[in-house]
Design goal:
It is built from no helices and 9 strands. The chain is mainly beta and about 120 residues long.
């Protein structure tokens, strides 16, 4: 019989420029499939805020983690004009699911991400 778990992780990060920065990394178990949902909020010193809700379907077979289909945004990113160019994605890297943010030049942005992972194994 298949087994399932729900796991979650919360992390924060800060960007001070337009470079991509990992907010959190989650080690995906081998021989499993999952639905990963990221909820991310960004906030700067001027009081601007922006939020994202994204879903990714992934599977890891024989040590290789891959994306099934395409990233889905459950909502269009909502936010203040001051953070219009701030961006966020959920993706994979190696055997990990990652949530990554890209800030804005000369702007300090604080980020918080929550990743919920529903995993099923055979």
């Amino acid at each position: 019989m298949a087994s399932s778990i729900t796991d979650s992780k919360v992390a924060t990060a800060q960007t001070t420029g337009a470079l991509a920065t990992s907010i959190l990394t989650y080690a995906h178990p081998d021989a499993s499939g999952s639905v990963c949902q990221a909820v991310v909020v960004a906030y700067d010193a001027s009081g601007n805020t922006k939020g994202w809700v994204m879903t990714l379907v992934a599977k890891r077979v024989s040590g290789t983690l891959g994306i099934v289909g395409a990233l889905q945004s459950l909502i269009t990113a909502q936010g203040d004009a001051g953070l219009a160019t701030a961006a966020c994605i959920i993706s994979t890297s190696g055997t990990d699911v990652i949530v990554q943010a890209t800030g804005i030049v000369l702007t300090t942005i604080n980020w918080r991400a929550r990743l919920i992972v529903d995993i099923l194994t055979p």
